[in-house]
Amino acid sequence: VLGFPGDIGSALVERVRACAAGLEVFTVQYQDTPESRSARGGGDMDAALGVTQPVSAEAAATLARAEILLTFELPIGIGEKTPHLQWVQGIGAGLDHWRGAALGPGVITTSAAGVASAPIAEFVMARVLQVVKRLPEMDASQSQHVWQPAYGRRLAGLTMGVIGYGAIGSRVAHLAHAFGMKVLAVRRNPRPDQLATVFGRDGLGDVLAQSDVVVLAAPASEDTFQ
User: Fold this and answer.
1) Which of 30, 74, 111, 182 is geometrically suited to a Cys-Cys bond with 159, CB 3.0 to 4.6 A?
2) Contact status, residue 66 vs residue 82, Cβ threshold 8 Å
């Protein structure tokens, strides 16, 4: 279990032990810098190398024994320090901030896709309401004790484009539909959906042209960076 301090790490260890009796489970403390995670997610490894948090010698010695890692983030070059590693399970949906981990070709990597779809969708709708209802302008007037009307628009009747229609995108569509919005979505493999009209990637231009609001929920991969 890599990178979970205190009670969180202890709880994860106990849960893993309960699921796999006889498995040796240990924790290693590690937390990369926000700057490094951002640079790695964007594919700028030169920048990431300059701001990353190195793995301590003690942590490296412990990780050298690991066959399985449960983690949110992977240190740069960790594959060179884990000769027995076979499987890495991420606790988040995205794995783009694992770039540069240098894992061996036989190492399996899996994510927890969908685990945060509900809170992220709520955050998306909060931002949409913030912009469409002009809440920052209203807050600014209130802080200045000035009555200055800032009438926003109704969400009902607006069109939302969702680029990437997986667990997060479909949850966003569910909430947008509840507000009376029309939802258009782009998915690599389109299929009929009750909440949205779904297009393939060749329909991206049409979806953008028709949308009042666009939500980008596509996975960060080499394919989507093109």
Assistant:
1) 182
2) yes
Could you tell me if 25 and 16 are in contact, meaning their C-beta atoms sit under 8 angstroms apart? yes
Q: How far apart are CA 173 and CA 181, in angstroms?
A: 9
Could you give the CA distance from residue 185 to residue 101 in angstroms, rounded to a whole number? 33
Q: Which amino acid is at 202?
A: D
The whole-number pLDDT of residue 66 equals 92
- What's this model's pTM, rounded to 2 decimal places? 0.78
Q: Report the distance separating Cα 108 and Cα 87, nearest Å.
A: 5
Q: How does DSSP classify residue 160?
A: E
Q: Among 117, 114, 213, 215, which Cα is nearest to 164's?
A: 215
| 148 vs 162: CA distance, rounded Å | 33
**Of 104, 67, 110, which is closest to residue 86 (Cα–Cα)?**
67
Q: Could you say which DSSP state residue 2 is in?
A: B
Can you tell me the distance from the alpha carbon of 100 to that of 116, in angstroms, rounded to the nearest whole number? Answer: 24
The string of DSSP codes covering 162-221 is EES-SHHHHHHHHHHHHTT-EEEEE-SS----SS-EEE-GGGHHHHHHH-SEEEE----S
pLDDT per 10-residue tile (average), the chain, 226 residues = 69 76 82 91 90 91 91 91 93 85 92 89 97 93 88 95 95 97 95 94 95 90 65
Q: Which residue has the tokens 């909440």?
A: 195
Question: Distance of alpha carbon 40 from its chain centroid, rounded?
Answer: 13
Q: How far apart are the C-alpha atoms of 58 and 56, rounded to whole Å? A: 5
